[in-house]
Write a structure and sequence with these properties.
- There is one protein chain.
- The chain has about 325 residues and is α/β, with parallel strands linked by helices.
- It folds into three domains: about 5-110, OB fold (Dihydrolipoamide Acetyltransferase, E2P) (Beta Barrel), CATH 2.40.50.460; about 115-200; about 210-290, Arc Repressor Mutant, subunit A (Orthogonal Bundle).
- The protein contains nine helices and 14 strands.
- The strands form three sheets. A five-stranded mixed beta barrel has the order 2-3-4-6-5. A five-stranded parallel beta sheet has the order 7-11-10-8-9, covered by helices on one side. A three-stranded antiparallel beta sheet has the order 12-14-13.
- Helix 3 (about 140-145) links the parallel strand 8 (about 130-135) and strand 9 (about 150-155).
- Helix 7 runs antiparallel to helix 8 (about 280-295).
- The longest helix is centred in the last third of the chain and has 17 residues, at about 280-295.
- The two termini are about 35 Å apart.
- The mean pLDDT is about 95.
C-alpha cells in the first residue's frame, strides 16, 4: 500500500503526478492506495452484460470507482454506504473534462453492515444466533420469546446494550413502513442489521377497485350459494379475476356481514346492515400491505439496500 488518502486529496493533479512515474512494471510497481472514508452516491452495474460495477464517491468533484467483473459488488454496496476503497488511480477524459477515477482492488464498508434476508417463513433453526431479535407483532414476540438464543424485544423497548456492537435481526414487517423508518436510525451503533421482515399477509397481484367488489357481490346475489372449495376457480375464470383478489373480497364481505361461509358453502346474508367495506379491518390491513410491498417488501435487492441505508443514515 503506497499511502492512505482522504477523498479531498484524490485530484486530477495528483493522478497526473503519479502517471509521470510510468511505465509501471516489475521493479516499478503502480502505486495502490487506500482511499476514504467516503459516502457512495451512486451504485450500479454497467457494461452490455452488466458484469461490471461502477460506484461514485461523493466529493467536491465526484470520483468514480470501476470494478471490472465484479457484478456482486453493486448490490452489496448501496447508495449512502460509507466505504474505504483500495485501488489504483487513473484519469477519466470525457467531453473535455478530466477527472480522477479509481480502479478497484478491494473495498470495505464502515459502520453498520446491512444484510437483506427477507423471508416468507420462520423456522426454529433461524433463532440459534445470539442476536437481538426485534419483533413488532406482540403475539409473534410471545411465541418466539424463550425459544431464541438471544434477546427478543419490542422496537419500543430497545436499549443501548441491546444495540451497540450487536447483531440486530428485524424479524417481522411492521404494519407501516414509517415504523421501520423511525427505528433504523437508532441502530446505527449495531455491528449488523439483518432484515427478515416476515409477514403472513401477502400483497395482491392487483388491488381490486370498488367496481369489482360490486360486481362480485352482484354475482353472489345471483347464484345465492357457492361451494367455495370446489367452485372458486370457476368463479375466478368466469369473472376474469385472480383468485387472490376474490378470496380477499370474500374476507372483506364476511367482516362486513354481507356473506357467511358455513361447512364450505358461501351464502348471501338476506338483510345485511349497511357498512362501508373500506372501513373493515381486513380492507385496511390489505391497503397497508400493498403500500408496504411498493415501498419495501417488493423492492429488488439493490433498491431495498439503498432504501434501508438511507433510513439508517437519515431516518
Amino acid at each position: 500500500m503506497a499511502a492512505t488518502l482522504p477523498m479531498a486529496s484524490v485530484t486530477a493533479d495528483l493522478v497526473t503526478q503519479i502517471q509521470r512515474l510510468a511505465p509501471f512494471g516489475p521493479g516499478n510497481e503502480e502505486p495502490v492506495f487506500e482511499i476514504g472514508p467516503a459516502t457512495v452516491s451512486q451504485s450500479l452495474l454497467i457494461g452490455q452484460d452488466k458484469r461490471h460495477t461502477k460506484l461514485q464517491l461523493a466529493a467536491a468533484t465526484p470520483v468514480d470507482v470501476l470494478a471490472f467483473n465484479e457484478p456482486k459488488l453493486a448490490p452489496e454496496v448501496p447508495v449512502e454506504s460509507t466505504v474505504k476503497v483500495v485501488g489504483t488511480l487513473a484519469l477519466n477524459r470525457w467531453q473535455g473534462r478530466v477527472t480522477p477515477q479509481i480502479f478497484y482492488t478491494d473495498l470495505a464498508t464502515t459502520g453498520v453492515q446491512i444484510t437483506d434476508a427477507r423471508t416468507r417463513q420462520l423456522v426454529p433453526k433461524m433463532f440459534q444466533s445470539t442476536a437481538t431479535y426485534v419483533v413488532f407483532d406482540d403475539r409473534l414476540r410471545e411465541n418466539i420469546d424463550g425459544n431464541a438464543a438471544g434477546q427478543v424485544v419490542s422496537p419500543t423497548t430497545l436499549t443501548a446494550t441491546e444495540i451497540v456492537d450487536q447483531q440486530i435481526i428485524i424479524v417481522d414487517c411492521p404494519p407501516q413502513a414509517s415504523q421501520l423508518q423511525q427505528l433504523l436510525p437508532q441502530l446505527a451503533a449495531a455491528s449488523e442489521v439483518v432484515f427478515w421482515l416476515y409477514t403472513h399477509h401477502q400483497a395482491l397481484s392487483t388491488f381490486p377497485p370498488r367496481s369489482q367488489f360490486v360486481g362480485l357481490y352482484q354475482f353472489f346475489q345471483q347464484v345465492q350459494v357457492i361451494n367455495v372449495n370446489q367452485q372458486l376457480p370457476a368463479v375466478a375464470a368466469q369473472l376474469h379475476l385472480p383468485q387472490d383478489q376474490i378470496i380477499f373480497m370474500i374476507q372483506v364481505f364476511i367482516e362486513a356481514g354481507f356473506v357467511i361461509i358455513k361447512d364450505g358453502f358461501l351464502k348471501i346474508v338476506s338483510a345485511p346492515m349497511h357498512q362501508d367495506i373500506t372501513a373493515t379491518n381486513r380492507y385496511q390491513v390489505q391497503v397497508a400491505m400493498q403500500s408496504l410491498y411498493q415501498q419495501l417488501l417488493g423492492l429488488p435487492g439493490h433498491q431495498f439496500m439503498r432504501q434501508v441505508q438511507t433510513w439508517l443514515n437519515h431516518g
